[in-house]
Amino acid sequence: MRWSLSTVFAGGQPSGRLVLLQGIRRGRFCFFTHYQSDKARDLEANPRAGLTFGWIELERQVRIEGTVSKTPRAAVEAYFQTRPRGSRLGAWLPTRAG
């Protein structure tokens, strides 16, 4: 499921983008991103974020706000190996937008 992740970048300007929620692990919502992406840099500077998704069937939205933390490196590497080869190769390309 794609969620809208909202962060704040330098100067206090909000920024939102869609992320693929990987699931809930140990009571925390989990998503992965390239550490050099805009969203990763935003979260490094200010770890407060918001997740939002529309629950169309109930005509509602779900909003979650809190502090983010990095997933342990071993879990990140294990996840990365499950991605299709093309996706893994694409992750090595330079990124400009988060």
Which features would summarize this protein structure in a list?
98 residues, 4-stranded antiparallel beta sheet, two-stranded antiparallel ribbon, 6 strands, 26% helix, 39% strand
Structure characterization notes:
The protein is an alpha+beta fold and 98 residues long. The chain has helices at residues 38-45, 73-82, 85-91, and strands at 2-9, 13-20, 23-25, 28-30, 48-55, 60-67. A hairpin with a 2-residue loop joins strand 3 and strand 4. It is globular and about 35 Å long.
Strand content: 35-45%
Poorly predicted runs are none
> Please, what is the average pLDDT?
83
Shape call: globular
Per DSSP, the total helix count is 3
Distance between the termini: 18 Å
Rg over C-alpha atoms, rounded to the nearest angstrom: 14 Å
Give the fraction of residues assigned to helices.
Answer: 25-40%
Structural class: alpha+beta
> What is the N-to-C order of secondary-structure elements (H for helix, E for strand)?
EEEEHEEHH
Largest sheet strand order? 2-1-5-6
Total strand segments? 6
Largest sheet: 4 strands, antiparallel
Could you give the topology of this structure?
Blueprint: E1 2-9, E2 13-20, E3 23-25, E4 28-30, H1 38-45, E5 48-55, E6 60-67, H2 73-82, H3 85-91
Antiparallel strand pairs: 1-2, 1-5, 3-4, 5-6
In a few lines, what is going on in this structure?
With 98 residues, this protein is α+β, with helices and mostly antiparallel strands.
